[in-house]
Amino acid sequence: MKLRRPILAALMLWPLLAAAADDDCLPAQPDKLVWKKVQYVSSGNKLVVDNHYVMLEGVVAPERGRPNKWNHRSDDPLAKQAKLFLLRLFANHDMQVGIEHDQKRYDRFLRELGHLYYRDAQGRLHSVQRALLRAGLALAATNPPNLKHQNCYYRAEKTARKAVRGIWRIAKQYPDLKYPIIPSNKIAGDDEGYRIVRGPVRRIVSVRGFEGFNLDTTGIRIPEEDFRRYWNKGMLRQLRGKTIEVRGRPYFALGHMYMVVRHPNAINLLNPVYDADGIK
Length: 280
Fold this sequence. Notes:
The protein contains seven helices and 15 strands. The protein is an alpha+beta fold. A hairpin with a 2-residue loop joins strand 2 and strand 3.
């Protein structure tokens, strides 16, 4: 897909030095940030620092395609632009990054997880994740137990969505790409990657090891441990019969589509930043 020049120009011209961030965007203890030099920007999600990967916690940028034995998944729209955005951001700030850790420091692939910051010319701190989200080059994500800066990230995403910027312009102008939003009645077995699925809640379910509900085509499953910690039955009951947006990674198994979610923020009606239409 060839993107129109105005889309690319708007992304590249989007100012990196936004207005002062909300308090939730800033580290609780700025003096404890670990400052390091960025060696390489691998993608909109991932940096190389001190010869190891650092993942941006709380966001998922458009992802590069990965081949597998069944098919070759192409790049998400604006994957290259997200990478270039981060590269330019760090290049304009001496390739320095401040890292704030959350409760969980590493993912299952032993990649470091961090909330990242850069300093402007006056020495003020700015959130890298917030900049990426406001440019419309990432989706906010919730990965328990790492829950710092959730309101900041979802507000930044909402700002870009209301402005129809970046991936939100893709969603509006090229709906057949099914990115980042997939209507549940159009989801298919080869739809992979981090997405927002929109559809009606048909049934509340409880199965072995999971609570959850079914959309018209997709089963949403919540692991029991996460349900006990972050959810309650009333949350699910209030969703019955309503059309919702739920974000995560859909997958095909045993003839059906599923998605595992862990925290209420993944559902627009339960997220304090969003309402039924996705925009508050």
